[in-house]
Specification:
about 240 residues; alpha+beta; globular; 5-stranded antiparallel β-sheet; 6-stranded antiparallel β-sheet; binds guanosine-5'-monophosphate; 13 strands
């Protein structure tokens, strides 16, 4: 077995013979609250890999550059090697999670416009929210790159919102990561999955029953695996429908 390049909480990165290409292995491991809570979600690796692959491929077809190449195995994705920017980009359409905790906004409040936020990707510091000036002082990205990231994040939000709407799912919020390839091009990286998005079933009004994402694990709501499976089923069905159009 090739020695791993990097192991994160949900994925392991392996080098390949081509230094421009990496292999990402999606794990069943689940963590929350900065890894204070740990567990496993059976089948999560394969599900998140399949959902991410389908969404990356579809976003790429809409002109969003991503790191995705292909999915040689159910839980493995080949991606372009990028230098990940240490910034977590969160887009919110509806108030939930840390936004409610930190501002007092009620969960479920529809925001007047999509909110793009930047967090420092640093577990030891607890991924703090960054201001524009903190971003500038930390020099994590150039002002041009930040502008490009924000524009891409908003475009991705528009596409994903419409897509999930067709799946009968409300896209509440999500986290993106970006990287630079060897030529300095900005690419959407990491994953898009129920681990990184808040997804609410449109057919359910109950605030617990509607949750189809990692909040089921974070908040001990049960039926985590089946929620992830249902997201996968709806996403893949929708992708198949779009392909046939
Ligand atoms: P919040 O700031 O409300 O905790 O998270 C906002 C959104 O970004 C949620 O959809 C959440 O899943 C995602 N998110 C934020 N930080 C992380 C992170 O470190 N890991 C993962 N997997 N998702 C995150």
């Amino acid at each position: 077995m090739v020695e791993k390049l990097y192991e994160g909480k949900a994925k392991i990165l392996y080098p390949t013979e081509d230094e421009e290409i990496l292999l990402t292995y999606f794990k069943d491991d689940a963590t929350a609250f900065n890894a204070q809570k740990r567990g496993q979600i059976r089948g999560k690796g394969e599900i998140n890999c399949a959902i991410s692959a389908a969404l990356f491929e579809w976003l790429e077809s809409l002109g969003i550059p991503t790191h995705y190449i292909d999915r040689p195995e159910r839980d493995r994705m080949r991606v372009k090697a990028v230098k990940i920017l240490p910034i977590e980009v969160v887009v919110r359409n509806i108030a939930a999670g840390s936004l409610c905790k930190q501002t007092g906004l009620p969960e479920g409040k529809i925001l007047p416009y999509p909110l793009v936020e930047f967090y420092l990707k640093n577990d030891a510091l607890g991924d703090p929210l960054l201001t524009r000036d903190r971003l500038a002082i930390l020099e994590l990205a150039t002002p041009q790159q930040l502008e490009q990231i924000e524009a891409m994040a908003l475009k991705i939000n528009q596409h994903l919102r419409e897509f999930f709407e067709r799946c009968g799912i409300t896209l509440v919020d999500f986290k993106l990561e970006f990287g630079l390839d060897s030529g300095g091009q900005l690419l959407l990286a990491d994953e898009i999955s129920p681990d990184t998005c808040r997804l609410w079933d449109k057919a359910e009004t109950d605030p617990k029953a509607r949750v189809m994402d990692k909040d089921r694990f974070r908040r001990d709501l049960g039926e985590v695996e089946s929620a992830y499976q249902r997201v996968q089923q709806r996403v893949l069905e929708q992708i198949a429908q779009l392909r046939n159009q």
